[in-house]
């Protein structure tokens, strides 16, 4: 399949030289597939503002369009304005705007903005239309939301505040995505909603992430993964098969693209990419 779908890739800032070397190796392999853009997380896992900016620069130097994630929790307007200005000077045109979780890369507890919708509005107020703004969507509901309907309204608020497109939390049940898109469209949301895709490589890590972010691992996937025990090769092969099938279903049924959470590993994302014949 020669693709008109926008495929993007997410990386996180490396913590040391060895991790940076690994990131560069992975990024070079993955950039050869010509993703639409790459993004770099902020704050998650203890990374810092400088770590995100440096990693964005590193990826820009490898020749790709790189988008920093920016979270507002714990930050003042002055700090956010400063970051936006420096990204603008760096030639960045796309930002993933988030609330974030505490503790955040901003460090402080003096946050002036409490939700991503306020951050989106602030970016528009401060930087006009300079940035293409991505926001997060939750097909299986954000874990802190009081209910699915309220969470959808909060998502709609982010779009009305000026978001250009959305990337979803990962999920393993395509129906949750299609339902979320349908409910968003019914509320007048017409921006692209790109599914976030989490490759499966490590059961313990996946279970930990999923507990935190509220992504359901279907029972049959849990049981299959449990059977594999420490057999990493079988877990990877099974993961590529399951995630390729999910991704194909999403693309065949209207998803405008895919956003891969690479976890700075090239191998599995490349294997899925090839299965999907995206290049
Ligand atoms: P919001 O949209 O603000 O929503 C957060 C919660 O508040 C939801 O439960 C929502 O329903 C509720 N809410 C929103 N508005 C209101 C309101 N007005 N009144 C009451 N409740 C409201 N985290 C990081 O730390 N760094 C990253 O780089 C990062 N990247 C991510 C990328 C993607 C694609 C995704 C899906 C998530 C990412 N996260 C990241 C995780 C994210 O920061 C967390 O999920 C966080 O808890 C919520 O962020 P948000 O932008 O979705 O928040």
How would you portray this structure in words?
With 279 residues, the protein is of the alpha/beta class. The protein has one domain (6-275): TIM Barrel (Alpha-Beta Barrel), CATH 3.20.20.220. The chain has helices at 17-31, 49-61, 77-89, 116-127, 148-160, 174-186, 203-213, 219-228, 232-252, 267-275; strands spanning 6-11, 37-40, 66-71, 94-98, 132-137, 165-170, 193-197, 257-261. Strands 1-2-3-4-5-6-7-8 form an 8-stranded parallel barrel, surrounded by 4 helices. Helix 3 (77-89) links the parallel strand 3 and strand 4 (94-98). The longest helix is centred in the C-terminal third of the chain and has 21 residues, at 232-252. The protein binds flavin-adenine dinucleotide. Flavin-adenine dinucleotide (FAD) binds at residues 41-44, 69, 71, 96, 98-101, 104, 115-117, 136, 142, 144-145, 150-151, 154, 158, 167, 169, 196. It catalyses: (6S)-5-methyl-5,6,7,8-tetrahydrofolate + NAD(+) = (6R)-5,10-methylene-5,6,7,8-tetrahydrofolate + NADH + H(+). Belongs to the methylenetetrahydrofolate reductase family. Its EC number is 1.5.1.54.
């Amino acid at each position: 399949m020669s693709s008109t779908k926008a495929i993007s890739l997410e990386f996180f800032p490396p913590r040391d030289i060895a991790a940076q070397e690994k990131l560069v190796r992975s990024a070079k392999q993955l950039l050869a597939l010509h993703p639409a853009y790459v993004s770099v997380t902020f704050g998650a896992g203890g990374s810092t503002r400088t770590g995100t900016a440096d990693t964005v620069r590193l990826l820009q130097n490898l020749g790709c369009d790189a988008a920093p994630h920016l979270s507002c929790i714990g930050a003042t307007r002055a700090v956010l304005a400063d970051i936006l200005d420096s990204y603008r000077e760096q030639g960045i045109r796309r930002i993933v705007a988030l609330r974030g979780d505490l503790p955040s890369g901003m460090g402080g507890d003096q946050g002036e903005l409490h939700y991503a919708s306020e951050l989106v509005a602030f970016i528009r107020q401060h930087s006009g239309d300079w940035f293409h703004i991505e926001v997060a969507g939750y097909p299986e509901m954000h874990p802190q939301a009081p209910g699915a309907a309220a969470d959808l309204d909060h998502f709609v608020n982010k779009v009305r505040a000026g978001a250009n497109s959305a990337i979803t939390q990962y999920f393993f049940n395509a129906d949750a995505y299609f339902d979320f898109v349908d409910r968003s469209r019914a509320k007048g949301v017409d921006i692209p909603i790109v599914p976030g895709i989490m490759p499966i490589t490590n059961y313990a890590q996946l279970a930990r992430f999923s507990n935190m972010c509220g992504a359901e691992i279907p029972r049959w996937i849990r049981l299959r993964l449990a059977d594999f025990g420490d057999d990493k090769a079988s877990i990877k092969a099974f993961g590529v098969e399951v995630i390729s099938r999910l991704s194909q279903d999403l693309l065949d049924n209207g998803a405008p693209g895919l956003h891969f959470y690479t976890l700075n590993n090239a191998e599995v994302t490349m294997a899925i990419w090839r299965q999907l014949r995206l290049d």
